């Protein structure tokens, strides 16, 4: 059997319980066709970069699959027919990652940061430099050819 990582996006107006029910139904499809589902990570409701089927947000879910291609095809067929699934993507992998995925590690990293006031800012960046006194520049003249300028 082949190993896959499968990510799907569910509509924003679903509840988390409905998303969990979708995951359970797709787990049933995989197991009925001779496969198994490993880790399942709910990444939560996230903003989309652009609208997908009139949705601005979606529930992201990752599933690690160990199944024959026929089981994967059946699950993807059912996802394509479902109005609750906006998009999905499956990638064949050599081995499943151990531990949390990169998305979950990023979330844990954010919660460990604490308050902004606790952080050492270090050296000033280029945009923070003091430009000093720029002196008197004189009266401002309109550009030639600009609207409202002299003809």
CATH architecture of the domain at 2-96: 2-Layer Sandwich
The secondary-structure class comes to: alpha+beta
For the largest beta-sheet, the strand count, sense and barrel status come to: 4 strands, antiparallel
Poorly predicted ranges = none
User: What form results from the Cα inertia axes?
Assistant: elongated
Radius of gyration: 26 Å
List the helices and strands in order.
EHEEHEH
Q: What is the beta-strand fraction? A: 25-35%
Characterize the quaternary organization of these chains. Answer: single chain
Strand element count: 4
The strand line-up of the biggest sheet is: 2-3-1-4
Helix content: 25-40%
Q: How many distinct helices?
A: 3
How would you describe this protein?
By secondary structure, the chain is an alpha+beta fold. It has a domain at 2-96: 2-Layer Sandwich (Alpha-Beta Plaits). Helix content is 27%, strand content 32%. It is built from 3 helices and 4 strands. A 4-stranded antiparallel β-sheet has the order 2-3-1-4, with helices on one face.
